[in-house]
Amino acid sequence: MNLNFMKWLMYPAAWLYGLITRLRNLLYDRRIFASVKMPVLVIAVGNITAGGTGKTPFVIALAEFLTGKGFRIAIITRGYHRQTKGQVIVADGQQILATSQQAGDEPYMMAQKLSGVVIIADADRVAAAQTAVDRFACNLIIADDAFQHRRIDRDLDIVLWDRQAAPKDEALLPAGRLRESLCGLQRADFVVFTKSDEIPADQQACLQSVNPHLKFFAAPLAITAVCDRSGRAVAPADLALLNVLAFCGLGNHMQFEATVRQLNLNLVTFRRFSDHHKYTESDLRHLVDEARQMQCPFLITTEKDAVNLPKTVQESDKILILKIELKLDEKLKAAVLENVPPSSDFIA
């Protein structure tokens, strides 16, 4: 069936979804639904579109930057697709306390990359923030994927936007990728164009027409390393002109595929899985067999997918992990600091 026709079929559901989100936002705007103010700083990082904006690398970069400025950071997150309920302390600032199954792939990956940062998975962000303050004496909360989670009040709202997505062409779920109307950007302070080192003028003008007070920044992604599952680095020159099978389970497969193409490879075959896919040994056997048939000596995946791989699989040395890092430019760092008092002003 034609994809455009399918999209049109989704518009009645999108209209109903938009009505529900507008009503919910109105109830918060009129303070009929109350937002809870925390005794410490809260920075919300989120999307107005569904997935694929580089949110996890951004949260990691932001936490590293603010930790370096003397803040005692806690990241609070829902922990999608985890096999637990309630609140889970993923990391206490000293060690990782939960498995990827207990924490969810993204919180676990953040815990692997960040030292000195408390990470708490809980659908109730207010309860998670209170634990961060009461139990761990944190004085700055980063609320991950929380732009629509209005129950917790925030001091700074940062919305990430994938520069490959044209705002004027986006529609509400399920007809498009918008989690709420673009009017929701009236609540935002910053829009960060991720995966780019420039701010597209046409997209900025479109989003600024919704909220003239928005500040705009760019945050590019860069490949930092290619490693095997034991952590041994593989020189990009060793991959030159090879055939490779690349696979991922992400909200935005295209960004990963574009990043893989930056390597000097001969032929790349891509296999896509659903976001947060938990790979089975059978999945890996099929991928390895397919790679062998296509004369691909290596398979490449993302750090997030690596968390979801089974721990024991034959020929795991053939699986390479593409490591990326998001860069915060100096203008963005300065703008963040302008909106938060010095860490010494907030003693939890």
Describe the structure.
There is one protein chain. With 348 residues, this protein is of the alpha/beta class. The protein folds into two domains: 237 residues, Rossmann fold (3-Layer(aba) Sandwich); 104 residues. It is 32% helix and 22% strand. The protein contains eleven helices and 13 strands. An eight-stranded mixed β-sheet has the order 3-4-2-5-1-6-7-8, with helices on both faces. It has a five-stranded mixed β-sheet with strand order 9-13-12-10-11, sandwiched between helices. It is globular, with a radius of gyration of 21 Å. The chain starts with a helix and ends in a 10-residue tail after the last helix.
Helix content: 25-40%
User: Taking all residues together, what is the mean pLDDT?
Assistant: 91
Largest sheet: 8 strands, mixed
CATH-defined architecture of the largest domain: 3-Layer(aba) Sandwich
Give Rg in angstroms.
21 Å
Distance between the termini: 57 Å
CATH topology description of the largest domain: Rossmann fold
Number of domains: 2
- Main sheet strand line-up: 3-4-2-5-1-6-7-8
Helix segment count? 11
Q: Element order, helices and strands?
A: HEHEEHHEHEEEHEEHEHEHEHEH
Keywords summarizing the entry:
348 residues; alpha/beta; Rossmann fold; eight-stranded mixed sheet; five-stranded mixed sheet; 11 helices; 13 strands; 32% helix; globular
Write the layout of secondary structure elements.
Blueprint: H1 3-29, E1 41-47, H2 55-68, E2 73-77, E3 88-92, H3 100-103, H4 105-113, E4 118-121, H5 125-136, E5 140-144, E6 156-162, E7 190-194, H6 201-208, E8 215-219, E9 221-228, H7 236-239, E10 243-249, H8 253-260, E11 267-273, H9 281-293, E12 298-302, H10 303-307, E13 319-326, H11 330-338
Parallel strand pairs: 1-5, 1-6, 2-4, 2-5, 6-7, 7-8, 10-11, 10-12, 12-13
Antiparallel strand pairs: 3-4, 9-13
